Amino acid sequence: MNRFKMFTLAAGFAAVMAAPLPASATECGTSDKITIANMTWLSASTLASIAKTILASGYGCDVELVPGDTVPTATSMLTKGKPDIAPELWVSTAQAIWDQMTEKGNVYKANNIFAGGGEEGWWIPDYVAAEHPEIKSITDLKANWQVFADVSNPDKGRLYGCPPGWGCEIITNNLFKALGLGETFELFSPGSGENLKASIARQVTRKKPIVGYYWGPTDVIGKYKLVRLDMPTFDADKFKCLTDKDCADPQVTGWAVGEVAVAVVTEMKTKAPNVAEFLSKLQVPNAEISEVLAWGDDNKASPEEVAAHFLKNYEAIWTAWVPADVAEKVKASL
Prior knowledge:
By secondary structure, this protein is an alpha/beta fold. It has helices spanning 3-18, 42-59, 70-80, 95-104, 126-131, 167-178, 193-205, 219-223, 236-242, 268-271, 273-281, 286-298, 303-313, 315-318, 324-333; strands at 34-39, 63-68, 85-90, 107-112, 119-125, 149-150, 153-160, 185-188, 211-216, 226-228, 260-265.
């Protein structure tokens, strides 16, 4: 073999050895830090912790949870491409922003996080529904305000609104205007998701009337036996305006069926295809996740503890999201 051929073969062998090896199906695929939106309610923060554990322990990714809420997170993903993942983004409450994401193409829906979809609206306890059969719909509230009058303002009913910064705050505010409820109701801001939950718990424990915003699947709906008030037929155009804080003429319409996305920045498909594959399978059944959340509430567990409880006790669900060796690594880390 002459020197030229030897040199050529040696150079070729060196090039092959120097070339990066393709990632296996169980490797992260990127050394970049992956950020996950850690939102302020238990289901979202639990799902964020579940995703973090699987990505860090199963795939070896560098993962960080970052603070988030529906509207701020959606806006940040649209404008800055961060965070990388929002495991529970309520598309239907941030529709205007989501439409901009779709048009821009920098964020996509990897999956619907809840198998049965999300459910939002205004709710009353079952005992209020039984005692006041005349209150079946949101359109019945205006004439029956006395039922929900609060001692601090006995001349008006109190409607507990959506926590500040959540997408549902804009919708609830606009729907309140569209129904003309300002004549007989005060729209009371709970201040936070925890305060809203505490207000419901306090009123139900005392068997007092309460009406306000909530969503499912959550432990609150099942634990306190809340009944969702009927709404008019859903109208897409009217509802889209309700999601806009600058809606000039809000109109009454039913709440959109909750589209709750695993929202992911589009570049994840190319820089970490294994992560994208996992996220495309990330979905939880409504009944089971409500059970998990109820366990967390009953045990005053942190989102990390609730996530660990899910991973230890609901293997049949999450092991279907990942390759077998990834699942074994996650189990070993618990």
